[in-house]
Every structure is written in C-alpha cells, then in structure tokens.
Amino acid sequence: MWHKIFIIGIIFIIGFLQVSFIQSLPAPWHHVNLMLATITFLAFRRTAWRLWSAALIFGLILDLYSFYLFGVVAASIVFISIINRLLYLNFFTNRALMSFMAMGFLNVVAYSLIIRLISLTQNSYWPPFSTVIVNMFWSTILTEALVIVFFVVQQMHYRRNQIHSHG
Amino acid sequence: MRFPVVGQVNSRIFIPFAIIVAGAILFLLRGITILNPVISPINKIFFQASNVFSSSPKDLGQPDLALENELLIEEVRNLKIENAVLRTQVEENELLRQQLNFTQNYQFNYVTAAILSRGIDRAFDQVIIDRGSADGIKPGMPVIFGDGLLLGKVAAVQKSISNIRLISDQLSKVAVSIQNNGQTVGVLEGSFGLSTKVELIPGDVEIEPGQIVVTSGLDPFVPAGLIVGEIERVEKKTNEFFQTAYVRPLVQLSEPSIVSVIVTE
User: Fold this and answer.
1) Is the pLDDT reported for residue A144 higher than 90?
2) Are B28 and B114 in the same domain?
3) Among residues B12, B27, B89, B205, which is most buried (max CB within 10 A)?
4) Looking at the keywords, is Transmembrane present (chain A) (predicted)?
5) Nearest-angstrom CA–CA distance, A4 and A7
6) What is the value of ipTM here, to two decimals?
7) pLDDT at residue B103 above 70?
8) How confident is the model at residue B193 (pLDDT cuts 50, 70, 90)?
9) Alpha carbon A49 to chain centroid distance?
10) pLDDT in tens, A49-88
C-alpha cells in the first residue's frame, strides 16, 4: 500500500517538475521530456499499473497548465501509453537498450505531432517545418539521453541486488 | 542486453531524486499566499540559481565587472524608462491644453501575479500566471513588469490561471508608436521568440536605433505609454516603399517571476 502511494507521489512530483521547472529552462534544455522518458521506462515493467497511473497523472497535470480542451492532452498521453504497452508485448520483448531507445524515439515523435495537431485545431497555427524538426531533434536527443540514464540505473540496481543475493 | 524486472522499487534510488523535485514543487507553489513566509526565501535561492543558467559565460570569474555592468545596464534602462515617461507626459500635456475638460488618470487597477510555468507547448512564447477570471482578468489585458515595461497580453483565461502571450511570440500583435518626431504608429509583431519588429513603416519616416517604442493605446484594454522596447536596427531596402524596425525589449522576457496585469473596464 505505502509502496504504491510512494510511487504515485513520485509520479506527481515528476509531472510538476516537468511543467514548472524543466519547461522554464533556457534552450535547449526545455526540450527535455521527463514525462515521456518515464513512460518509456515504465512501459517495460512486467505489471502495467505504474504505466497507467503515470499516463493519467501526467496527462491531467499537463491539462491543468494547458489552454486546450480539458482532457485532450491526457487522452493523448494515455493513447501513447497504450501503444507503448502493445509494442512492448508484441515487438520490443527483449527489453534491450535499443528497444528502450526505439520506444523513446517513437514516443517523442508521436507526442510532438499530437501536440502540434491539437494546437492546429485550437490556434489555427502550424509553425514552420524547420522549427518543428529542430524542436523534435532536441527533444529526441535529450529525452533519449534520459532514457539511457534510466536504463543504466536500472541495470546497476539489478546487478547490485544480484551481487548481494549471491554474496 | 537483457535485465529482469525488479519487483520492488528501492527507495534509496529515488530519495535524492525526490529531494530535487520537491524543491521544484515549492517553486510551483510560490503563488499561494499562505506559504509565502516559507516559500519566499526558497524563491530567492531558486531565482539566483536560475540566474546562473541565464548568465553569459564571460560574466563568470569576473564578479566586479559583471556587477558593474549589470548596474550600468539597470541605470540605462531606468533612464530610458524615465525619458519615455517624460516624453509621453509632454505629449499628454499638449493634449490636455487642447482639451481642457479632459483629464487623464494613470491610476490603473493592477493584479499582481506569479509566473507558474512557461506552458506545455514551447513552440509558443507564453507564460502561465496564477491569476484568472476570478481576479477580473480578461483576454487582451496587458501584462507588465516593473515600472510599465510591457511583457505581453492575456491570451486566454481560466478561473484561477491565465495564459500570457509574450510580445516575442509569433502570434502576438500590439499596437505601438515610435517616439520619433512624427510619433509613427504601427503593429509590433513577434518572431518565434527571437525578436520583435514593426513592419510596414512608410519609407520616408525617419527612424533611428535607440528610439523608444511605446503602446499607442489603440488596442482594447491597453493604455498608451507602456514601454515596449527600443529600436535596435532599421531595415530599409532601396526601391521599397516600406521599412522594418527591429525592437529590442528593455527587459529580458524570460527574466520576471512576478508580473502585474492592468485590469481596466
């Protein structure tokens, strides 16, 4: 019980960190997407409750600070998470680093395009192609870096536990 | 490269991470009045920390020169503001002389607000503030920093938060006048958060770098005389009827953490 509350608390904190802190950093650091990196990481867990919790909480936090129709961003994040889970169960089953990175890349591209489409319907504005590509490039590079960090931490944690159990 | 799934999350991994993000939560909650005595000192630390991110590399290691430079920039900015205010007042005096029954009152109602976020879509140059329609804020109202420096206009409101479109945003349009001999009027437009410019100025109008740009008062809710910036350069091609003036804001638009919304009827 406490374990689940702790995890949900961490998910909330990651959400607010993304919206209030990372988004306010100077370029190119504001392109880091901690939420998508977390969703990519959680998609590879055996049980999916963390993924669904994270998708819903991240979506609602983003909706709180967006001026798009309430629920649109949350629905997008949940949709991306469902696709993530399907990809994990059917294609990226080996949980290799490359699978993590491929999933991270797909997430960044999908999220960027969905946000642009939502913005197009609400603001009737689509930024120049070069701007979209540059933003997507930085977002991919920095978010993938975060995905790699998560993967390495997970590996180190597992190896340490293995050493302790054998020792 | 395979790894088995770990059933339990080790809290030791998350503790340093949780401490860092808890700081960010406090940063977010700074607009809540009841927490102010606790939050304000932490805010100062965060603000100084954010200055590290935004300071140029040449400032590092030369604290005295950097400080002196900062003070001089501040002084120049204040003088420009004073100059612009005086020029606006001179013009107003002339108008007042012509219209004896007219009295201009600058006692606006202000709503002070804290910036919560830069919004979820960084393709736009915008900020989210912690005041909304419950505080009397409406779309189109001007948002200022310090002593009348225009940051942007309210683009959308909810009950307790508002979305501010900064003047550098590509969708931003503000009616302005340039403080030259003819008080040239135009529309200031943003350019992808990088610059602001006034286009379609007739080619025969004399504009020079350093001239101050203020709001013209032609926008609904936006009073005349709010300082927008100064002319940085003028682009005038031969055989063209119009020229473009690039305007440099007198305040770095990402700098403020507290702003004011001018609430007018």
Assistant:
1) yes
2) no
3) B27
4) yes
5) 5
6) 0.81
7) no
8) low
9) 15
10) 889 989 999 998 888 888 888 888 889 999 999 999 999 9
With respect to residue B85, please indicate whether it lies within any of the assigned structural domains: no
Same domain (yes/no): B149, B260: yes
Task: Please tell me the distance in Å from B165's CA to the nearest CA on chain A.
Answer: 12
Closest Cβ–Cβ partner in B1, B14, B120 for A73: B120
CB-based contact B50 A24, cutoff 8 Å = yes
Q: How much is the average pLDDT of A115-134?
A: 86
Q: What is the pTM of this model?
A: 0.71
Asked if the structure places residue B240 within a domain, the reply is yes
Mean pLDDT for the stretch of residues A152-162: 84
Nearest to B120 among A29, A31, A66 (CB): A66
Q: Does A89 contact chain B (CB < 8 Å)?
A: no
Residues of B with a Cβ under 8 Å from any A Cβ are 1-6, 8-11, 13-14, 17-18, 20-22, 24-25, 27-28, 50, 53-54, 116-124, 128, 155-156, 158, 161, 163, 170-171, 192, 254
**Residue B238's domain is classified under what CATH number?**
2.40.10.350
User: Given a cut of 70, is residue B13 above it in pLDDT?
Assistant: no
Same domain, B255 and B186: yes
Residue A97 contacts B where some CB pair is shorter than 8 Å: yes
Chain B residue with the nearest C-alpha to that of A134: B123
Domain that holds residue B34: 11-54
CB pairs under 8 A between A and B: 106
Position A106 pLDDT exceeds 90: yes
